[in-house]
């Protein structure tokens, strides 16, 4: 075995949306990791790590432009763990066989251990894992064993003598039951790596880098109102001093109800006087007149933020080149914007538009949180002494309600979009014996299936799931709904999201009407958002819900709009599960929202991520 002098794990990034989540999980276990391009030469890895992980990714191993790994990596004697695409790539490079699957597999699956290899020590024989793939390993390489299966699929293979292990599923995501234990076994039993990483050590290195990058310059921080920008602003104040930092909060008109006033009061209460709040709502609404495409919305909002930033700097008679732009960007923002070489762009974040990318290349942007996840940021906020009510405030994206109010450039009737006979058959089979009916929604939403961005149709399901002789009828009903919302997008690329009609009365007719971002529509959405969060708080479950997007659809039953509730549970926002609200809470919330003039119907988004994203746009 090669002699390794560095106590770290090297991750070969093949473009998975979860690559940085692997790094985070490893860090949480106290081990340093480094992410590199997959085509790094094996000679450059020799002696540099205790283990190598080959990540997942959206490509097929047979594609000309797919990520490649130097086959000599397997001759180094360094333990290797292949995940998802890495599982397929290992099989392909080592003489196995990979084929296109008949359908994708996204979400929960049952995993059965077939061989007692070191990777699965102290893991139950059967457990729940999280899949996100299309291709499959059909034949394992010579001298490898099938270590585990998912149905008839080869979900794991291993060669213990060569210390090579692979998994079709993602151990790094929360929803793989024993994923952390599998990673622990790889790190400490197989690689025998030592713990050398901590958040405190990382923050000390960030402070050193910030002082060096900022130098004699000053930093202008855009405060969106979320925890990320607040923690970044606090860090910069502590490290550089308030005299070198200026906070700017821009009321875009798409904030939550009373958001901007609440932000200003909260920051003043903490003692920050170096902040300015401006109302730019009119110019944001004007810039978005007649715009319906979600990517265009995000780009316009990002550009407008830069425009306002530049104007404010000039208004203060400051030399713009003596000021850097500070942002609360975190890792998921960069990953979903497709900034890694092989990653698919899921959506453009407002802090990753072309104008900001240009500033980044010029070295004029500082992002002290760019390698951290949401839970890391909250820990840093507590380390900095910020009030808990601010640190644990529910996340809210920079574009705000602008990406929660879906738009349409034309009118549609439900008959204007129809599925094929085969697609209808797949849905009917998935709903068989559930007593649920369905309708396709002509609108589209963003999703992530097999690490690829999808822009596909939501499916409306209606009715009460058929439940027979169970102790907990409510949980059993949610089990049925979650299974349906997983199975259908797994089988159909045309569907990436499933929403359940809260009203038990069957929706027989609807139409999608032409709609854009107007103050009238946004005011309706603000009220719905406020009611939903008020109901969560009064029910005592607000801390159980990590994020609560409330989405407006130009879906009309009698001339109004429809509202979709999207309560989520997650640790890191790379994977999510819909929050199972009690039936009473759901009904009370929907009933209150339907009292808002202009609201026709309320739906409940029951889709996990993958295949859906947190936001619809």
Describe, in plain words, how this protein is organized in 3D:
The chain has 617 residues and is an alpha/beta fold. The chain folds into 3 domains: 8-190, Class I glutamine amidotransferase (GATase) domain (Rossmann fold), CATH 3.40.50.880; 199-398, HUPs (Rossmann fold, 3-Layer(aba) Sandwich), CATH 3.40.50; 412-605, GMP Synthetase, Chain A, domain 3, CATH 3.30.300. 31% of the residues lie in helices and 22% in strands. The protein contains 16 helices and 28 strands. The strands form 6 sheets. A 9-stranded mixed sheet has the order 2-1-3-4-11-10-9-6-7, with helices on both faces. Strands 18, 19, 20, 21, 23, 25 and 28 form a 7-stranded mixed sheet that branches. The chain has a 5-stranded parallel sheet with strand order 14-13-12-15-16, sandwiched between helices. A hairpin with a 2-residue loop joins β9 (145-150) and β10. α5 (227-240) packs across α11, α13 (421-431) packs antiparallel against α14 and α15 runs antiparallel to α16 (583-593). The longest helix has 22 residues, at 294-315. The radius of gyration is 25 Å and the shape is globular. The two termini are 49 Å apart. The model is unreliable at 343-350 (pLDDT under 50).
By DSSP (H or I, 4+ residues per run), the number of helices equals 16
CA-atom Rg in angstroms: 25 Å
Number of separate strands: 28
What can be said about the biggest beta sheet? 9 strands, mixed
């Amino acid at each position: 075995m090669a002699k390794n002098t560095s106590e770290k794990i090297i991750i070969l990034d093949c473009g998975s949306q979860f690559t940085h989540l692997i790094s985070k999980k490893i860090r949480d276990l106290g081990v340093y990791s480094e992410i590199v391009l997959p085509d790094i030469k094996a000679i450059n890895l020799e002696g540099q790590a205790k283990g190598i992980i080959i990540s997942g990714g959206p490509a097929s191993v047979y594609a000309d432009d797919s990520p490649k790994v130097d086959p000599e990596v397997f001759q180094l004697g360094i333990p290797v763990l292949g995940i998802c695409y890495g599982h397929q790539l290992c099989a392909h490079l080592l003489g196995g066989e990979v084929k296109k699957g008949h359908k994708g597999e996204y979400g929960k699956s049952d995993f059965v251990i077939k061989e007692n290899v070191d990777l699965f020590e102290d893991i139950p024989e059967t457990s729940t894992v999280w899949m996100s793939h299309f291709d499959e390993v059909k034949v394992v390489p010579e001298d490898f064993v099938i270590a585990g299966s998912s149905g008839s699929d080869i979900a794991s293979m291993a060669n213990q003598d060569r210390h090579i292990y692979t998994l079709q599923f993602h151990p790094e995501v929360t929803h793989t039951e024993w994923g952390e234990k599998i990673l622990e076994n790889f790190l400490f039993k197989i690689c025998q790596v030592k713990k050398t990483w901590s958040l405190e050590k990382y923050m000390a290195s960030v402070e050193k880098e910030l002082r060096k990058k900022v130098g004699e310059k000053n930093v202008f921080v855009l405060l969106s109102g979320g925890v990320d920008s607040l923690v970044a602003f606090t860090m910069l104040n502590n490290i550089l001093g308030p005299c070198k930092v200026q906070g700017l909060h821009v009321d875009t008109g798409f904030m939550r109800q009373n958001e901007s006033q609440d932000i200003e009061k909260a920051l003043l209460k903490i003692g920050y006087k170096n902040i300015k709040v401006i109302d730019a709502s009119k110019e944001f609404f004007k810039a978005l007149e007649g715009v319906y495409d979600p990517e265009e919305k995000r780009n316009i909002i990002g550009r407008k933020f830069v425009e306002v930033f530049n104007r404010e700097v000039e208004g203060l008679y400051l030399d713009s080149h003596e000021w850097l732009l500070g942002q609360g960007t975190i890792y998921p923002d960069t990953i979903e914007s497709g900034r890694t070489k092989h990653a698919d762009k899921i959506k453009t974040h407002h802090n990753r538009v072309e104008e900001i990318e240009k500033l980044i290349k010029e070295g004029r942007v500082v992002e002290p949180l760019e390698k951290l996840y949401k839970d890391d940021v909250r820990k840093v906020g507590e380390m900095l002494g910020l009030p808990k009510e601010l640190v644990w405030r529910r996340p809210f994206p920079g574009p705000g309600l602008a990406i929660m109010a879906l738009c349409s450039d034309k009118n549609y009737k439900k008959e204007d979009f129809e599925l094929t006979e085969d697609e209808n058959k797949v849905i009917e089979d998935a709903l068989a014996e559930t007593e649920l009916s369905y309708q396709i929604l002509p609108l589209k939403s963003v999703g992530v299936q097999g690490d690829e961005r999808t822009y596909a149709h939501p499916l409306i399901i209606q009715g009460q799931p058929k439940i027979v002789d169970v102790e907990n009828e409510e949980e059993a009903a949610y089990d049925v709904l979650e299974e349906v919302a997983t199975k259908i997008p797994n089988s159909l690329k045309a569907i990436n999201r499933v929403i359940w009609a809260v009203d038990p009365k069957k929706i027989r007719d609807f139409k999608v009407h032409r709609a854009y971002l107007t103050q009238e529509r946004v005011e309706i959405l603000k009220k719905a958002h406020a009611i939903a969060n008020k109901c969560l708080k009064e029910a005592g479950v607000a801390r159980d819900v990590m994020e609560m997007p409330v989405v407006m659809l130009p879906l009309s039953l009698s001339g109004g709009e429809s509202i979709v509730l999207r309560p989520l549970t997650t640790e890191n926002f790379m994977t999510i599960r819909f929050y199972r609200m009690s039936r009473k809470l759901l009904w009370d919330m929907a009933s209150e929202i339907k009292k808002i003039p202009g609201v026709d119907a309320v739906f409940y988004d029951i889709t996990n991520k993958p295949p859906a994203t947190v936001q619809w746009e």
